[in-house]
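To assess whether the prediction recovers the assembly geometry, we first specified each molecular entity separately, as shown.
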Amino acid sequence: EVQLVESGGGLVQPGGSLRLSCAASGFTFNYYWMNWVRQAPGKGLEWVANINQDGGEKYYADSVKGRFTISRDNPKNSLYLQMTSLRAEDTAVYYCARRDGYKLVYWGQGTLVTVSS
Amino acid sequence: QSVLTQPPSVSAAPGQKVTISCSGSSSNIGNNYVSWYQQLPGAAPKLLIYENNNRPSGIPDRFSGSKSGTSATLGITGLQTGDEADYYCGTWDSSLSAGYWVFGGGTKLTVL
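The predicted structure of the complete assembly is given in tokenized form:
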């Protein structure tokens, strides 16, 4: 059974940093592109970043470019999102999702990040 | 403001049919496959339709998808109260030098 479990969310002050993790199981992790998608409270889905199978290609939404870094550790079956210079508008539930071709098939349950003083 | 445009809300009675539209451009819907996601209250999104009109295993055939030009449509027939959820369309956008993923703003379905 495919499982994606996010962790690392919490309360952080504006300007602070946080590192999210996504533990993958039930599939061959290094076969797939992986994504981070977020959802602000009461708002819609926003794609944040993605990374290819070996970590050599990474793409970011304009809203996080230069502040967030996506990475992966294939031997550990883990995906990460390093977030710096956090702003109030980064407050959201952050989901990791596996890309299969042209679709996001599997999603984690999400981890909440709250940026507030 | 989302790259893909969806109506904020739709509603219909149980047993009826509803459609949800998703409008984009040639850099996204016009040249890429569209997928649809259902998000029940308090839950993570779930893939509902992929590659414009295909259903993953376990998704009932009450759900259907179509695409024409730069627009896509999700159809739901035989509405049930359990279908009340937010629905999102998504696709790749190649307007930048590197492709990135875009979602619609979401449509809240109310089954009256």
